[in-house]
Specification:
Number of strands: 0
Mean pLDDT: 95
Helix content: over 70%
Distance between the termini: 71 Å
Largest sheet: none
Oligomer: single chain
Shape: elongated
Structural class: mainly alpha
Order of helices and strands: HHHHHHHHHH
Strand content: under 5%
Number of helices: 10
């Protein structure tokens, strides 16, 4: 019997990486998927790019996540999925400390008017960008709007409220501490 091929085809690497990532084994699957995506001659499906991008974000491989998000944007026609790809792009830029680009990608995603959970995640992430950049006064506006207007489910309200409270503590001014009392009730 012949030994296994030391250089399996890109499609096999993509399949193996995607399967591992779908099963929650991102650290094991990511290298296979990364290598499988290096072959430009093999067509790559939207789902494969999405798995690669999400795994890259989870593994703090932001430059690779940015590559994946851009690839999804080139392939995708659906507005909701484009907004999702822009959200990934925003997260990647934020991880790379490219705050203006992160803000722009989040804004572009919101311009596509995604509904439901993605809309809330984008609005919350807009606050996260400001917080990462060291601008809690700007971040609080996003969190308060989500908490008061957009969050419909109990879990979304809890998450937004927790961010409002922690950000008010970070701000720490007398006015912020006064507002904090209202939100802690």
């Amino acid at each position: 019997q012949d030994p296994p091929d030391p250089n399996p085809p890109a499609a096999i690497l993509q399949w193996l990486g995607a399967t591992l990532i779908k099963n929650g084994e991102e650290e094991r699957g990511w290298p296979f998927l990364h290598e499988g995506l290096a072959d430009k001659s093999t067509p790559i499906k939207h789902l494969v790019w999405k798995l690669y991008t999400k795994a890259s974000l989870d593994l703090n491989k932001y430059a690779e996540a940015l590559r994946g998000a851009k690839a999804i944007l080139e392939l995708e026609k659906n507005a909701y999925r484009k907004a999702e790809a822009l959200y990934f792009k925003s997260q990647a830029h934020n991880g790379l400390k490219q705050f203006d680009e992160a803000r722009q990608a989040a804004s572009d995603a919101l311009d596509l008017r995604p509904a439901g959970a993605l809309d809330i995640r984008l609005r919350m992430f807009a606050g996260d960008i400001d917080l990462t950049e060291g601008k809690p006064e700007a971040a609080i506006r996003h969190y308060i709007i989500v908490e008061g207007t957009f969050a419909k489910s109990a879990s979304d309200k809890r998450e937004a409220l927790a961010k409002v409270i922690s950000t008010l503590k970070i701000i720490g001014t007398p006015k912020a501490l006064e507002l904090l009392k209202d939100y802690q009730k």
